[in-house]
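dumping this here before i forget
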Amino acid sequence: MYLLNYLSLQLAQQLFIAAGRFRTGQNLVGAKDGVNLLFRVPGSDHYTHNLPFFTIAVYLNGQRMTLLDDYIVVETLGSGTGYDGIIMNEAPFSDDHLTADYITQ
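structure:
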């Protein structure tokens, strides 16, 4: 009984921490000109990329894109610096809406 209560408390704490770092509906930064494929999360944020549990979820015009089929995740400042960008397989146009949900590191 005590172990069950402890695990429930531990899970609740983890969910609370994750909720404080969760970003939803964030506009990705980059030129939407039909040519540019690289987009970054706003500010100096870095997102958690820990498959199969957490990674960035990207939406183009409200439709969720699929990791590897529609975009890949990248560390724009080099290996080991933290995931902060994506590369789309097809470039969005100026009237497209590109947003993301992610958990910051």
